[in-house]
Write a structure and sequence with these properties.
- The complex is a heterodimer of chains A (about 575) and B (about 350).
- With about 575 residues, chain A is an alpha/beta fold.
- Chain A contains 18 helices and 18 strands.
- Chain B has about 350 residues and is an alpha/beta fold.
- Chain B has a domain of about 200 residues: 3-Layer(aba) Sandwich (Rossmann fold), CATH 3.40.50.
- Helix content of chain B is about 45%, strand content about 5%.
- Chain B contains 14 helices and 5 strands.
- In chain B, strands 3-2-1-4-5 form a 5-stranded parallel β-sheet, with helices on both faces.
- In chain B, strand 2, helix 4 and strand 3 form a beta-alpha-beta unit.
- In chain B, helix 3 packs parallel to helix 4, helix 6 runs parallel beside helix 9 and helix 11 packs across helix 14.
- Chain B is globular, with a radius of gyration of 20 Å.
- The chains are: A alpha/beta (about 575), B alpha/beta (about 350).
- The complex binds zinc ion (ZN).
Chain lengths: ~575, ~350
């Protein structure tokens, strides 16, 4: 049985095609329509997934749709929401399903796809929970979903066993850590839904001196539940998200683009500390109630690497699986998985050991993409590719690395990546100036040889999806200045020869040359564009930005002369 | 074979300097490439998705004895289209091949083998009826392109067959280089109003006008538009090509049809690797002589611009691969059969 899962109309639309025999293809619409965070109907993503799977829409038996009450209705439903009782509620008393969407979607599917077969709706938390648990390596695990910033419903946890998932408790709007985070993000002068990641990075530069006061604002309880003191916020009205009382307590908001003074840095640090504290408390609570040793996490907050790192280190959970597309995009995968496994009882066949679920492109197309822009098409065998690219990275080059199937989720993990030398203290600034155009305080992640992780990081756990910030061993820190956050942590991706032999071999070459078993890995895109998808995207990004080398499948293209001669 | 003086070729595509339609600028880039450059930065046409194609197919699936009529030439593109319709989309196609007397045996064999392998019905129609028109065109020394009236004729005939068998869908093997947007579909593949066709198109129009005094061809449609409009009066059929909707290049599907339906390239055809009829040699020679390029140059230039083909591949394919003997042989067959 083949099911197409769709997530659409909120933020980060995506499509997924899941079928028997381990068939699993998934892609975000933004990669195809080239609109960052595209919320459009994921028609192009679905088309790409079907073509990559070698089937057509006729082979799809059911379409599963991820259903989520969304922020747009905020004002209209404000009063209704106010009446919602606080605290954990049962799954059955969940918010009324938005009938509008249920009525409209079948029409959208008929119009866009000529679809006449069943359309199934999968509720929000279930889709999120399924997106993590049903592709995790665990037969049984606790599941925690914490919604992304700026979103509506907030937190749920439950238990996954075999092919079933039971949601036990949930917290709803307006008691949302996400909304609190977004409100403060906008107070700090960053854009809602975009700036949250920046605030997380900024947190490292301040001191959490406001944590006590924020705790009270959030109404954080020892079990991780919370009840926001609404007098500090004004979510229901237009304009700013905080109230005059918030300004009396914490001062005037920062003017966007102005200096990041100490007060703001401290607020960012306090906010991040609060989030981590809440996440830790939640995780401990879930552990207490389930007694399980394994945890699966999904939802936008599960992309907060610092919080994830602490859950791994400070709670009794021994193994934590975070699905790389933890946000709305991943819910497309979750919705399809719910229908296949929970509804139809089909066995779980796929463990997501890598994020390479997207389309891939034939060598012929890469050759054409290069030739079309007048670039040379010299094919290079894998060993030579690894050797030459490692060599160029070690001599300071910035490399576009495009290989195999596209990653699913927000992180580039060695298939659509920009690579650079972490030893060079100036590399962060070089990347910022030449390609990424990001704020100087945001750290870069690194890909590290799995077998070397223990020697370099304080925790030797597998982290294939770059979703945990882990402390680098103090004695090693000075050797990788550009991969290091100000707090001494690094978002790292562990690479094994099994999951990605080509990439692993490249880092091994770099290790041999430099004694450092990691390279900076950031997504292959310009700051405000989606990550590249096709060979044409990669070539265009390579030409437009100041990248020195492009490794496009078997093709190696170098801009300008090498800095040093090859050995 | 005298093809006139060498012409400089655009640095980006494969079109030569051929005023007034195509002019190379100081940088050696042709006016069509420049125009395309401006167009691409302006408009953002939504792509044609395979799901769109399937949605259109679903409307007609299973209707009548055959739900689509596939125009087959024995070439790779139309053979792949037939293969897709039967295997990928599980339609019930009627394969249709038209031979004006100049089709190569290898091409006919390709269509037969594909129809056999796929288990689809094949309608093979051979006629001498247009030979006189071709002869007239050659004798007149017109700069018109032989392929234009031929495709008008072929299209009219296809619509006629669709009407006769009450088939709602006509499937062609047109590639992305031949087509552009849905609006062009109704014009049947070639946008003859495009600037690079202007002079060729005018010559064809002028030639077709002369047919009005010819008792045998008086009714011949004066343009593709007219042919389509006439056909629509009798029967409505939608014309589509699966290649417009698929993210695949020719070399990807050539492998499939070689393996699955025993497709083989014909020994001698222009451009290299194509499966065109022998009359095509004459058409190519005529266009090269008068304009320095053919409609294959236009098509491949488009594919080069879209990144579906490299410039080098296109230039190689477009090299003249036949000589005077080939032309003489075709001219001989144009003569009226001995009475
Ligand atoms: Zn040109």
């Amino acid at each position: 049985m083949t099911v197409a899962g769709l997530s659409a109309f909120y933020h980060d639309s995506a499509a997924c095609v899941a079928g028997n025999g381990g068939l699993l293809v998934a892609a975000q619409e933004e990669r195809l329509d080239r609109v960052k965070g595209s919320a459009a109907f994921p028609g192009r993503a679905l088309d790409a997934c079907l073509q990559a799977a070698g089937i057509t829409i006729m082979d799809v038996d059911e379409i599963a749709f991820y259903e989520k009450p969304f922020l747009k209705f905020e004002r209209m439903l404000a009063d209704h929401l106010r009446a919602f009782p606080f605290s954990y509620a049962s799954f059955r008393r969940t918010m009324p399903a938005w009938l509008g969407e249920r009525l409209v979607l079948p029409l959208v599917l008929r119009r866009n796809l000529g679809w006449e077969r069943p359309v199934r709706f999968v509720t929000h938390h279930l889709a999120h929970a399924a997106s993590a648990f049903l592709v995790s390596p665990f037969e049984e695990a606790a599941v925690l979903t914490v919604d992304g910033v700026g979103e509506w419903t907030t937190t749920a946890w439950g238990i996954g066993r075999g092919t079933s998932i039971e949601i036990r408790e949930e917290i709803r709007y307006p008691d949302s850590l996400g909304l609190l985070y977004t409100a403060v993000t906008t107070w700090l002068g960053f854009e809602a839904n975009r700036g949250e990641g920046k605030v997380m990075a900024l947190g490292g530069f301040g001191r959490p001196v406001l944590l006590d006061r924020l705790r009270q604002v959030a109404g954080l309880r020892p079990d991780g539940s919370f009840r926001l003191d609404q007098s500090f916020f004004r979510f229901e009205r237009g304009g700013v998200m905080w109230s005059p009382r918030f300004e009396r307590e914490f001062g005037p908001p920062r003017v966007p683009g102005s200096d990041l003074g100490e007060r703001y840095l401290d607020m960012a640090a306090s906010l991040q500390a609060l989030l981590e504290e809440a996440m830790l408390a939640l995780a401990r609570h879930v552990h207490e109630r389930t007694g399980l040793r394994r945890l699966c996490m999904a939802g936008g907050v599960a992309l907060n690497c610092a919080a994830n790192g602490r859950i791994l280190e400070e709670t009794p959970f021994q193994e934590v699986f975070v699905q790389p597309a933890a946000g709305d995009a991943g819910a497309a995968l979750g919705a399809a998985a719910v229908i296949r496994h929970c509804v139809h009882g089909l066995p779980r066949e796929v463990v997501m050991r890598d994020a390479f679920l997207g389309p891939e492109y034939p060598v012929s197309r890469m050759r054409r993409a290069l030739a079309a822009r007048g670039l040379p098409t010299t094919e290079v065998p894998p060993e030579e590719m690894q050797r030459r690219v490692a060599d160029r990275i070690a001599s300071g080059a910035v490399v576009g690395w495009f290989q195999g199937r596209m990653e699913f989720g927000p992180r580039a993990l060695g298939h659509r990546s920009i690579l650079a030398d972490p030893r060079n203290p100036a590399m962060k600034d070089i990347l910022n100036a030449r390609v990424k155009h990001r704020e100087p305080f945001r750290p870069y992640g690194a890909s590290v040889l799995a077998e070397e992780t223990g020697a370099w990081f304080e925790r030797d756990t597998e982290s294939p999806f770059m979703l945990f910030a882990v402390r680098v061993r103090p004695e090693q820190r000075s050797r990788v200045p550009s991969a290091l956050h100000v707090d001494g942590t690094c978002r790292h991706q562990t690479v094994t020869p099994e999951s990605d032999p080509l990439y692993h071999g490249l880092i091994r070459q770099f290790h041999g040359l430099t004694g450092v078993p990691m390279v900076i890995n950031t997504s292959f895109n310009d700051n405000n564009e989606p990550i590249v998808c096709t060979p044409e995207d990669a070539v265009a990004c390579f030409l437009k930005n100041d990248l020195d080398v492009l490794a496009l499948g078997p093709f190696l293209v170098e801009k300008g002369p090498p800095e040093t001669a090859s050995p | 074979m005298d093809l006139g003086p060498e012409r400089p070729i655009c640095k980006r595509c494969v079109l030569p300097h051929s005023p007034p339609d195509i002019v190379l600028d100081a940088e050696g880039v042709c006016s069509i490439c420049r125009q395309e450059e401006a167009r691409q930065s302006r408009s953002d046409d939504p792509p044609l998705l395979e799901t769109d194609f399937v949605r259109l197919l679903q409307k007609h699936r299973g209707k009548g004895t055959h739900d689509c009529l596939v125009m087959c030439s024995g070439g790779k593109d139309s053979t792949a289209a037939l293969y897709y319709m039967k295997r990928r989309y599980r339609m019930n196609p009627l394969a249709f091949m038209f031979d004006h007397g100049f089709e190569q045996q290898d091409a006919i064999d390709n269509v037969r083998r594909a129809a056999d392998a796929l288990g689809v019905d094949l309608l093979f129609y051979r006629t001498d009826a247009v030979r006189g028109l071709f002869r007239k065109m050659v004798v007149s020394g017109s700069r018109a392109v032989l392929c234009h009236p031929c495709s008008i004729w072929y299209m009219s005939l296809t619509f006629e067959m669709a009407a006769r068998f009450d088939i709602p869908l006509i499937i062609a093997g047109w590639t992305k280089g031949q087509s552009a947007r849905p609006g062009v579909m109704t014009r049947c593949a070639c946008n003859v109003d495009a600037p690079e066709y202007r002079s060729m198109g005018e010559a064809t129009k002028a030639f077709l006008k002369t047919l009005r005094d010819d008792p045998q061809y008086r009714d011949f449609p004066s343009s593709m538009e007219e042919a389509v409009a006439r056909a629509r009066k009798r029967h409505h059929a939608t014309v589509l090509s699966p290649h417009w909707f698929l993210d695949q290049a020719a070399e990807d599907y050539v492998e499939v049809i070689r393996r699955e339906v025993g497709w083989r390239p014909v020994a001698e055809s222009y451009p290299a690797g194509s499966t065109n009829c022998s009359l095509n040699f004459l058409s190519v020679w005529n266009s090269l002589r008068h304009f320095g390029y053919t409609h294959y140059h236009v098509e491949m230039a488009k594919m080069v611009r879209q990144g579906l083909m490299t410039r080098e591949e296109a230039l190689r394919a477009l090299e003249v691969n036949f000589g005077d003997e080939t032309l003489a042989r075709v001219l001989e067959r144009l003569e009226p059969p001995a009475k």
